[in-house]
Write a structure and sequence with these properties.
Elements (H helix, E strand, L loop, with lengths): L3 E5 L10 H13 L4 E6 L5 E5 L8 E5 L3 H18 L8 E4 L3 E7 L3 H4 L1 H7 L5 E6 L32
Parallel strand pairs: 1-2, 4-7
Antiparallel strand pairs: 2-3, 3-4, 5-6, 6-7
Protein name: DUF4262 domain-containing protein
InterPro entries: DUF4262 (IPR025358)
Organism: Mycolicibacterium arenosum
Length: 165
């Protein structure tokens, strides 16, 4: 699928950031409107994030716990709404994605730790927002009883109050 890169997660979370990989991502950014989706395959904790939205003045987007194709579609769709349509996404917002997912936006606490390629390409000051999804019963990962057949969903930041102060 165009714009989807599968990079296996190495032993003990190590990353092999070779120049070839970085150059392929940069080429993909040029080819795909200045940003791409990076998928990190992990048997128990897969995640995906955008690379290049930071260069447009908005935070990168991240989603955890979904397969590559779903992650790619969600991030591309919401990324295009931000870039092409001028939509705003901020912490504590709720997003009803195609009547399929209810998502809450959470600011990622340490984007440079989790979005390694984005930090290498866009700089260490990269900001990111996680799109946290509710399970099929409308429960969030921080609520008792959250469970989903898709697997685990680490939340990489702290929820913000609504409305924002």
């Amino acid at each position: 699928m165009a714009g989807l890169k599968l990079i296996p997660n190495g032993r003990q979370g190590s990353w092999n950031m070779c120049d070839k990989c970085l150059n392929e991502l940069r080429a993909g950014m040029t080819e795909h409107h200045g940003w791409v989706v990076q998928y990190v395959h992990h048997e128990r904790r897969p995640f995906a994030y955008t690379i290049g939205l930071h260069n447009r003045g908005v935070p990168e987007l991240l989603v955890t716990g979904l397969d590559g194709h779903v992650s790619n579609r969600v991030l591309k769709s919401i990324g295009h709404m931000i870039v092409d349509d001028g939509a705003t996404v901020a912490p504590a917002m709720l997003i009803d994605y195609e009547d399929r997912f209810l998502m809450e936006v959470v600011a990622v606490a340490h984007p440079d730790v989790h979005l390694k390629y984005a930090a290498r390409i866009c700089g260490k000051d990269v900001r990111a927002l996680q799109l946290v999804w509710a399970d099929d019963k409308g429960r969030w990962p921080w609520e008792k009883g959250w469970n989903d057949e898709r697997g685990v969903q680490p939340v990489l930041g702290v929820r913000s109050p609504w409305p924002p102060p």
